[in-house]
Design a protein that fits this description.
Chain A is mainly alpha-helical and 276 residues long. Chain A is built from ten helices and no strands. Chain A has a single domain, classed as MetI-like fold (Orthogonal Bundle), CATH 1.10.3720. The chains are: A mainly alpha (276), B mainly alpha (311). At the A-B interface, helix 3, helix 4, helix 8, helix 9 and helix 10 of A face helix 1, helix 6, helix 7, helix 8 and helix 10 of B.
Chain lengths: 276, 311
């Protein structure tokens, strides 16, 4: 597939992130668990022993970054997979059957869209005292599927008028067969674009929740690192580095996802070309 | 379709959406594990005290009748009262009214900051398409989309308040204290609008009427700013309008960093306190703002572009 230069850059950026997420915990030079406290070495700047310094507990920043990549990768893959599946099915069913089913499903979509997503995520996460990865996934999927549903419904409404769909119906194909064999494969392109953008979106929301102290209780997340940084805003020689490290990591992933998403959209969805 | 029937239809479906959100939140709150009475009463409450709180919150009634009494509070304009002591505390509506001006001020300032930076950036990129200026402007707006508020806002505070001392920091009030949060809250929107302006301008600059304007010898500035810009701004206005709703409620990170009161923060506090009436009231107000803003954007769009009104 021929992709633009910037799409390649985006793809490589995402690949680096995925690699860091997969290998991170193994290549991390130090442990980041609560037992690894090293209080004499807290608030260190960059050095040979700690390339990116240490945090308020003396834990190595680079290792936290790599562990954070692991949890960000896990969460974004799972959330994008679940919400795109739900969205594709809902959108296809709504667009194919139309009528009352479409009306009900799209009203649900309207309800979820008439409200800022992050507040819904917060409400769900806040239901448990110590949110784990599971609650986080539920919270992010609760409204994550809406975008996919809209996109695939729109596609199906256009596809259902195509000759090959009419032909399949005329040949006696069942509804299920038309949806699985003719509709869903043909809307994978736009869905893939949406998934690429979604990847960045999930990471931003997760970081925001962790920043507000509602993140998953794993050893380190990028959002939790940012939260820690702003608690020590007055430690001027240290705070810039410790803010920039996780911040740039988040930016890296979101930028990569946007660049690749833009490139894929130009390639797979020509009618959208040039729009932002 | 006339404007009147269009308005009625939109208002109807908007009310339906708000009702849907209310039911969703209501059901959700009652599914949530964790007893609101525990939170309000504390560990050492007597059975009597607990019953009093339960009665005050209406928890002794059935779910449908609780929902009906919530709707009653919507109609009488109080949005409910805060327990356990409704007389000593303001009504939910009063609590929201207290924070709303802060939220509105931040949203307007953020919108202003976004537009002031986005339009020149987008126009410049479109007019100088393909040059290094375009690349620079496009890169800037892409970074603006990708930069997390959780990094940007604390860095702004660190640089302009802690280090340079040019602007007031968190918890301070007054117009100057609005500058940093407005900039932080507007960055993402600025980036989106700049991209939108660029692509919209590029499209419009290729239209026949722009060529006509050039062919009749109008100065380039007039072609760009009068003929092209006016038409290119339509989609930009739409996005700006639609995003205004999220500025009003989704500024929760910025409110958190700058220790500002606001709708988002109020909702977060209420969720953590399990303060049902406040959660329901705030959600209702936010959903209402969303729906209203969307209708206004559609109306503005119809007025600005007669082709849509006829469709």
């Amino acid at each position: 597939m021929k992709l633009s230069m910037s799409a390649w850059v985006g793809g490589i950026m995402l690949a680096v992130f995925i690699l860091a997420g997969v290998l991170g915990p193994w290549i991390a030079p130090y442990d980041v668990g609560p037992h690894a406290l090293d209080l004499p070495n807290r608030f260190q700047g960059a050095s040979a022993a700690h390339w990116l310094g240490t945090d308020s507990k003396g834990l190595d920043t680079l290792s936290q970054l790599l562990w954070g990549a692991r949890s960000a990768l896990q969460l974004s893959i799972i959330v994008v997979a679940i919400s795109s599946t739900i969205g594709l099915v809902v959108g296809t069913v709504a667009g194919w059957y139309r009528g009352i089913i479409d009306e009900i499903l799209m009203r649900i979509v309207d309800v979820l869209m008439s409200f800022p997503g992050i507040l819904l995520n917060i409400a769900i996460v806040a239901t448990v005292a110590r949110p784990g990865l599971g609650v986080m996934i539920v919270a992010l999927c609760a409204n994550g599927w809406v975008g996919y549903a809209r996109v695939s419904r729109g596609q199906v409404l256009a596809l259902r008028e195509r000759d090959y769909v009419t032909a399949a119906v005329a040949l006696g194909a069942s509804n299920r067969r038309v949806m699985w064999r003719h509709l869903i494969p043909n809307l994978m392109g736009p869905a893939l674009v949406q998934m690429t953008f979604g990847f960045g979106g999930v990471i931003l929301v997760e970081a925001a929740l962790s920043f507000l102290g509602l993140g998953p209780q794993v050893d380190y997340t990028w959002g939790a690192m940012l939260d820690q940084a702003r608690t020590f805003l007055w430690k001027s020689d240290w705070v810039t580095l410790y803010t920039l490290v996780p911040g740039i990591a988040i930016m890296w992933v979101v930028l990569g996802a946007n660049l690749l998403g833009d490139g894929l959209r130009d390639r797979l969805d020509p009618r959208q070309r040039g729009r932002s | 379709m006339s404007i009147g029937s269009f308005l009625l239809r939109r208002l109807g479906s908007g009310l339906l959406a708000i009702l849907g959100v209310s039911i969703l939140v209501f059901a959700f709150l009652h599914l949530v594990p964790g007893d609101p009475v525990d939170h309000l009463a504390g560990g050492e409450a007597t059975v009597e005290q607990r019953q009093k709180i339960e009665k005050c919150m209406g928890l002794d009634q059935s779910m449908p009748s609780q929902f009906v009494s919530f709707l009653g509070h919507v109609l009488d304009g109080t949005l409910g009262h805060q327990c356990p002591d409704p007389k000593g505390k303001p009504t939910v509506a009063a609590r929201i009214a207290l924070v709303f001006p802060h939220t509105a001020a931040l949203a307007f300032a953020g919108m202003l900051a976004a537009i002031v930076f986005a339009l020149p950036l987008g126009i410049l990129a479109a007019v100088r398409r393909g040059t290094w200026i375009d690349t620079l402007a496009t890169t800037t707006s892409l970074s603006g989309i990708a930069i997390p508020q959780m990094m940007f806002a604390p860095l702004l505070v660190f640089l302009f308040f802690v280090t340079l001392g040019w602007f007031p920091g968190p918890t301070e009030t007054g117009w100057m204290a609005l500058v940093l949060p407005a900039f932080a809250v507007g960055t993402h929107l600025m980036a989106m609008l700049a991209r939108m302006t660029r692509s919209s301008m590029v499209e419009v600059l290729g239209e026949d009427y722009v060529r006509t304007a050039r062919a009749k010898g109008l100065p380039e500035g007039r072609v760009v700013f009068v003929h092209a810009l006016r038409n290119a701004l339509l989609p930009v206005i739409t996005i700006a309008g639609l995003q205004f709703g999220s500025l009003l409620s989704g500024a929760i990170i910025i409110e958190n960093v700058f220790a500002r009161p606001g709708l988002g923060t109020t909702l977060l506090e209420a969720i953590l306190e399990r303060n049902y009436p406040v959660v329901q009231g705030t959600v209702l107000v936010i959903a209402g703002i969303y729906v209203l803003v969307n209708i206004l954007v559609d109306l503005a769009y119809g007025i600005a572009d007669p082709r849509i009104r006829r469709a």
